[in-house]
Design a protein that fits this description.
Length: 567
């Protein structure tokens, strides 16, 4: 009887425990799915679909409003299947663990978009340049945080609960899968964006349909972690199925981006092994997904102390080895913005890497317009554009151009700063993009936008949700795709073009001015530093000359004394 009473008490305690909503951990404490759904709906940061885009184009093959119902149904089915992965089902704790992992991935990929991506790229370049290995402690902490169930142990070993991120509801996912712009089927150019692959690579396909893109980039795994789970068979199958049902040829229209951590030019044994394994793993993922093009940053010549040729030789040997261990994927070198030891900031670097690659059919270039401009390759006027393309043809060769990253630049020409701007709002301006899209050499290549998509109000102030997280507006990509497509054949002397050009330039004016001032300040500081150092050196040289002169005089005086007749 006493035992029965005890058990009854325990049950009451347990029921109480699970029914009290925890302030820190809403999702865990919410007992009913419906309640979670409601909160997410209220939090939704989806911007309303831009009507102009939906009306503008006729329904496209495979992505029309009619077919979305069918694809939506299929997607829901896939999600249902994924929700019931055996490893997820095994225990409640394990399910929570996987859920957190997926949300971590979602967050990571989302952060890389737009403005934040710029931040990441710059940061990584700095890390590569200084050759700083990610701190073990930090890495460990990050992994622990992502793998446990959201609890972090403090130094005194007490458990503090971390606020848990909410998982997207099916309704929210469905809304994201609805196209906000129809694809322009049969266009000469294949334009899209670097879309999210949160929750699995198969989601990237639907994310591209959403913005009306005909090509896309994605990360095959977390681009900021070395350790990643293998590509799940279900995700691989869904990726193939999604590409098929939405008429994407993954061999031509998809161009994954490599990890920011990988520096194949690093000559240190351990570092090169780690980089090589991550690189090879990506190539193998591409082959399973039927993807033929893969883009990566060439790395940096830090471990060779600035010896570019030694770094390039090491990089090429890694690329050759990876080619021998795979069979179809073509590795594309991306041109870079930063100077110094960063490889790929000159076309000569790309030429030299290609020259040392054994299988020329499996190497190519992905041209980033922002990086090229910031590295000193002008594209603005038709004359400057032609001159740059001539240099490209003579140095690298158009036969190696296999993909494009289409970005304007917030930083001025030759500034070596990697800051992506929205099309027409940066220092490149709309004319540069008119030059590119009207060049037949770019037809048929995957063209990917890596432009910022922070949602802003009419005064240009970034919009945030109630938690202070920046809102995204994928309509920006949808509109940029349509803008670039409309530039083909547009008369630059027309009112249409000049109005567009002026409008976009005005939009980016304050940001361009801000960057110009920032860069000028930095340049002035550097000039001052150089001047001060020169003055100091001159003073030093003067005083040492003076000292030497005195010594000489003394010496001369002595010898004169010696030579003088004492007698
Ligand atoms: Zn890149
Ligand atoms: Zn890029």
């Amino acid at each position: 009887m006493a035992r029965a009473r005890y058990l009854h008490k325990r049950v009451i305690v347990l029921v109480f425990k699970f029914s009290v909503p925890c302030q820190d951990c809403k999702v865990l404490a919410m007992p009913k799915k419906k309640a979670v759904r409601k909160v997410v709906e209220e939090d939704s940061d989806l911007s309303p679909p831009p009507d102009d885009l939906l009306k503008e184009e006729p329904a496209a093959n495979g992505v029309s409003a009619k077919t979305t119902k069918k694809s939506r149904k299929r997607k829901v089915q896939v999600e249902d299947d994924l929700d019931e992965e055996p490893k997820v089902k095994s225990t409640r704790a394990k399910k929570q663990k996987v859920q957190v992992k997926e949300e971590e991935t979602a967050e990571t990929v989302a952060k890389v978009k737009g403005g934040r991506k710029r931040k990441v790229e710059v940061k990584t370049e700095e890390a590569v340049e200084t050759g700083v290995k990610p701190k073990k402690g930090k890495k460990h902490k990050a992994e622990v945080e992502s793998e446990d169930t959201g609890e972090v142990r403090g130094e005194d070993n007490t458990v503090e609960k971390k606020p848990r991120r909410k998982r997207k509801t099916k309704e929210e996912k469905e809304a994201e899968a609805m196209p906000i712009a129809a694809r322009t089927i049969g266009h000469k150019l294949l334009i899209g964006a670097h879309v999210s692959s949160a929750g699995g690579v198969h989601n990237s396909v639907v994310n591209c349909v959403h913005i009306g893109g005909n090509a896309f980039a994605l990360f095959l795994k977390s681009q900021r972690k070395w350790a990643n789970p293998p590509l799940a068979d279900e995700h691989c199958t869904s990726f193939h199925a999604n590409c098929k049902s939405h008429s994407y040829d993954q061999a031509q229209h998809v161009i994954p981006h490599g990890s920011y951590l990988v520096n194949l030019a690093h000559t240190d044994g351990e570092r090169t092994k780690q980089a090589y394994e991550a690189f090879l793993d990506d190539l193998k993922r591409c082959e399973r997904l039927g993807i033929k093009l893969y883009n990566f940053h060439p790395g940096a010549a830090n471990s060779t102390k600035g010896d570019r040729q030694a770094a390039i030789a090491h990089l090429a040997s890694n690329v050759n080895r990876a080619h021998s261990e795979t069979s179809t994927v073509v590795t594309l070198l991306e041109n870079m913005a930063a100077g110094g030891n960063i490889l790929g900031s000159t076309l000569e670097d790309l030429r030299d890497i290609i020259a040392l690659t054994d299988n020329k059919d499996r190497v190519g270039v992905c041209l980033d317009t922002c990086h090229a401009f910031a590295a000193g390759y002008d594209l603005r006027t038709p004359e400057a554009y032609e001159a740059t393309m001539k240099t490209f043809e003579e140095t690298v060769g158009f036969k190696y151009l296999r993909a494009v990253h289409m970005n304007d630049s917030k930083a001025p020409y030759d500034s070596h700063r990697d800051l992506h701007a929205n099309i027409g709002t940066g220092f490149l301006g709309l004319r540069a993009f008119h030059n590119i899209v009207n060049d037949s050499r770019f037809q048929g290549l995957p063209i990917v936008l890596e432009t910022p998509i922070e949602a802003k109000d009419e005064n240009g102030v970034p919009l945030k949700d109630e938690k202070g997280k920046e809102k995204e507006d994928k309509g920006i990509w949808a509109r940029e795709i349509k803008l670039l497509e409309s530039l083909v054949g547009m008369d630059v002397e027309s009112d249409e073009f000049s109005i567009l050009e002026k409008e976009l330039a005005k939009k980016g004016e304050s940001e361009r001015n801000r960057l110009t001032e920032q860069i000028d300040r930095k340049r002035n500081r550097l000039t001052e530093q150089i001047d001060r150092k020169r003055e100091k050196d001159e003073k030093k040289a003067k005083s040492s000359r003076k000292k030497k002169g005195q010594q000489k005089e003394e010496l001369n005086g002595d010898s004169a004394d010696e030579g003088s007749p004492l007698r």
